[in-house]
Amino acid sequence: MAVTDYLRQRFFPHMWCPGCGHGTILNSLLRAVEELELSKNDIVMTSGIGCSARISGYVDFHSLHTLHGRALAFATGVKLSKPELTLLVPMGDGDALAIGGNHFIHAARRNIDITAIVMNNRIYGMTGGQFSPLSGPGVKATTAPYTTIDANFDVVKLAIAAGASFVARSTAYHARESTEILKKAIMHKGFSVVEILSQCPTHYGRKNKEGDAVAMLELHKTNTAKLGSKQLEENPNLVARGIFIQEERAEYCIEYGKIVEHAQRRNVK
Amino acid sequence: MNVMRLVFSGSGGQGVITAAIILAEAAVIYSGKNATQTQAYGAAARGGATRSDIILSDSAIYYPGVTEANVLITLTQDAYNEFASITRPGGLLLSDPRFVQTTRKADAKQLELPMYDQVMEKIGKPIVYNICTLGALIGITQILEPEAIMQVLEERIPQDFINLNMRAFDLGLVLGSQYQYRKFY
Amino acid sequence: MTEMIRFVQGNEACVEGALYAGLEFFAGYPITPSTEIAELLSGRLPTNGGKFIQMEDEIASMCAIIGASLTGHKVMTATSGPGFSLKQEAIGYACMAEIPCVIVNVQRGGPSTGNPTHVSQGDINQARWGTHGDHSIIALTASNHQDIFAMTVDAFNLAETYRTPVVLLLDEAVGHMREKLTIPAKDELQIIDRLRTSLGKDVDYHPYLPREDGRLPMSDFGGDHRYNVTGLYHDMWGFPSANPKVVNQLLRHLVDKIENNVHAITRYKEYYLEDAHYIMVSYGSSARSAIHLAEERRKRGERIGVLELQSIWPFPTEVVREKCAAARAVVVVEMNMGQVLAQVKSAVEHPERVFLANRIDGKLIAPHDIKKLLRVIQGKGV
């Protein structure tokens, strides 16, 4: 199947700005699904609210565009009620870690078999450029005219600490790498978190003098380095990319299946 | 019996609520009656005053609260002081001298039976005190067949503790039967 | 299965009704006085192959049941006042996306943390208008365990029929009280299952294109038809649209599908209404006291009756007007500051003859509380 067969072309053109990284992430994701030869009927994409969340409208899967921050809670209901489905949950900064932060850590704690994709552009784009919990200090935003003083979450560390059994990071610039990581994340049996750095030239780049989309993509390249690389060793200030953790651990739906078996055995007695 | 209203009171942990539920359940499941059981809820799981209202009736029961009790059981002094006055004239007020010092104020048949001391002496486990009290109530009033209560005990109580509870129930039944009183309607 | 007699709490009667109706998925968060529902279902659901999950909060519980409904399952959550407040955004989502689900609210005293272990009926208006924006909703209630069972079954049936969230408004008094429940034999009560599309896999399925009868057949997630579900205004494919015509049509559809079926949704019981000069309108646990009083006064020859509402929303305006038409006075008996009173006043021809007998202190309103007011109305003194 061609990659474009996974799109609902009826609903194009999409609503993202020119130069936005989200389209590239969609591209990486669809290629991962294509290369894994997954059936469209077996995939449910659940999203929240924001630029990132509109991704679910464009894909030809079962799609559930929900409330701000609640995508993982909806996804948990879908997955537990029908565990054979593959759950993809793309989220923005706010969805994943501000209003939805509680659902994020609890989905990780349960290690439920869902792939969470954090499309991190360090800004609230859809509402016009307010800072997010991933902006970090010293960032200009429409709600931080004097720059932010808020520290940012490290998505990778947070996800690992909360119990996610697969945690990785890549960028919109590293589209092929993202595809490879997403393939592993989707195949992983457990809660997978893939943080993909994205760029918002409209609201972040302009205000913070990072230039146009091309210049921002360049930053993804120069500011990051592969885990275990010499480059990262020599310059620990670079943001690490790659798979940080990949462990086999008890998965929630499988464990619940055992509860059902146990309860039914007891009931027969 | 047309309608019979009972209040069980004491302190949290004495098993007052459990005894109330067992009585009402026995009335419904094994005696073909209607029954309601309510209780006052607080935040504490142990300690504090406890009260459970039970209504037994051959017809439908609507308002489940008891304002005038045919039978009042009080297992603490606080419960006695607070609730003694809700007993109907001629009603039965059952208490235990181990915990309650009665006054002559209540216009009711006041029976003080040493249920706690009997349980400790003959069984040695305070956990079945409530079931002994229930036995005494049935012995005194004969409002239900003892078998109805025993059937509920068999259903509700874990296997290892049934014997203990049956002995406590019997103890109360024998004790109560010596003081039969049926004019509480 | 033949019928079975049980002695249970109202919350357990609700659990039995839900399982009878075919409940397959429950998500919840512990909250007094509804917690027994979650506790019991955590044990019962897996024995039927169903699923129970304790979520991280009230919001997540509401979201999870919506997700599970989309895979084709009958779903429910249970909560009380504060949790009901938290669920409101997601309840609105279920209204907008037309997803069948049942929300039980065992009411306690509010506002805020309020009076957690004591009875209230203060969430009547929240059930109607808790979520933002115009919409319509179905809310049922019950005063005894047999009716809790039946109304729970009805809640699932109405949720499936109208593709809508249905709120079951219980209260602490009936929720915690124990009394007899006869569980009907299988097939004794009607069970309405999900209406699924009959369209084959290569036919274009429109999830939001109503049939001629107004109903919208569903397709389970994981099935052959892939479509979009959103809380945005959406077209017949479920794709977001701000087209004024689409917005206008969808909102009217959401309201009309319920308001135009008020007769089919209305549920009530009446006691001694035929010749009643004085009518008490009540619901939930307070109706027990009204009926108690009516029986007591009837024995003394007073012409007094009770209209017990079992569906609150959409409000059964016509039934209330007709039943109360000949009454000298109508007394609304409820445990709030007059939430149903306002509805009754606007329903009847003579609102000046409608009075409120209420209790708002956490105690179940008693027959003598109502009697005091009734004596004043009857001109028998204070």
From TrEMBL, chain A:
Keyword DNA damage assigned to the entry: answer is no
Sorted alphabetically, which InterPro entries does this protein's record hold?
Answer: 2-oxoacid:Fd_oxidoreductase (IPR051457), THDP-binding (IPR029061), TPP_enzyme_TPP-bd (IPR011766)
What SUPFAM superfamilies does this protein's entry cite?
Answer: Thiamin diphosphate-binding fold (THDP-binding)
Q: A GO BP term, please?
A: cellular respiration
| Name by which UniProt lists this protein | 2-oxoglutarate ferredoxin oxidoreductase, beta subunit
Keyword Oxidoreductase attributed: yes
The residues covered by the Thiamine pyrophosphate enzyme TPP-binding domain are 49-196
**Lineage of this protein's species?**
Bacteria, Pseudomonadati, Thermodesulfobacteriota, Desulfobulbia, Desulfobulbales
From TrEMBL, chain B:
Q: Which Pfam families match?
A: POR
Signal peptide bounds: none
Coiled coil located at which positions? none
The UniProt record lists the Pyruvate/ketoisovalerate oxidoreductase catalytic domain at: 12-172
Question: What's an example of a GO molecular-function annotation for this chain?
Answer: oxidoreductase activity, acting on the aldehyde or oxo group of donors
Keywords in alphabetical order, please: Oxidoreductase
| SUPFAM superfamilies, A to Z | Pyruvate-ferredoxin oxidoreductase, PFOR, domain III (SSF53323)
- UniProt cross-references to InterPro entries, sorted A to Z: 2-oxoglutarate_synth_KorC (IPR052554), Pyrv/ketoisovalerate_OxRed_cat (IPR019752), Pyrv_flavodox_OxRed_cen (IPR002869)
Q: What is this protein called?
A: 2-oxoglutarate ferredoxin oxidoreductase, gamma subunit
Q: Which species is the source of this protein?
A: Desulfopila aestuarii DSM 18488
Automatic annotation (TrEMBL), chain C:
- Report domain Pyruvate flavodoxin/ferredoxin oxidoreductase pyrimidine binding positions: 16-199
Query: Would you tell me the protein name for this molecule?
Result: 2-oxoglutarate ferredoxin oxidoreductase, alpha subunit
Keyword vocabulary terms for this entry: Oxidoreductase
What InterPro entries does its record include?
Answer: 2-oxoacid_oxidoreductase, PFOR_II, Pyrv_Fd/Flavodoxin_OxRdtase_N, THDP-binding, Transketo_C/PFOR_II
Q: Name one Pfam family in it.
A: PFOR_II
Q: Where are the transmembrane segments?
A: none
Indicate the segments annotated as coiled coil, or none if absent: none
Specify the Pyruvate:ferredoxin oxidoreductase core domain's residue ranges: 276-370
> Looking at the record's lineage, which domain of life comes first?
Bacteria
Any one GO molecular-function label of the UniProt entry: oxidoreductase activity
